[in-house]
Amino acid sequence: MPDEPKPKMPTQYRRTFTLQSAHLNNQEAYDNLGTALDDEDFPALMSVLTNIHGHNFKVDVTITGFLGKEFDYLVDDRDIALFMEKFDNANLSLIPPFGPHKRATTENLAEHFAEQIWGMVGDNVSYVGVFVSETESINASAARGR
Q: What are the CA-CA distances from residue 127 to residues 59, 63, 72, 76, 122 (Å)?
């Protein structure tokens, strides 16, 4: 009896990024952000400036899929690195889609990163997972899959 071909097993890509970033830490600051930037409103600007703080965010990215004749990798590592780079040493509250109408929370960061990385992968990828840690005890995750 001839040997049956073995089913392919998925391959997994994992990478961890550290982002030293700041964000606004309360709703009042977010509410005043648009006014402070557009109208040069000093009290609004002070509300924004006095309610900013930073973290060393840890972002774990996991991508699962299959390698084959058409695909010899799951994702171009440079694409993810360039995407994540814009969030390092930055005020996350000023990087779209974040701003006055969408807070740069740990949950929203995880959702945004998962959505954007999902758009970078090919049809051979079945899963993208992102785990964002703000501190050792505050974290959020988001995933996309087919």
A: 16, 6, 17, 15, 11
Q: Any idea what DSSP says for residue 30?
A: H
Q: Is the pLDDT of residue 20 over 90?
A: yes
What residue ranges do the domains of the chain occupy?
A: 11-23+52-145
Which CATH class name applies to 11-23+52-145?
alpha beta
pTM exceeding the 0.70 threshold for the entire prediction: yes
57 phi-psi bin (left φ>0, alpha ψ -120 to 50, beta other): beta
Q: Is residue 74 left, alpha or beta, with left meaning phi > 0 and alpha meaning psi from -120 to 50? A: alpha
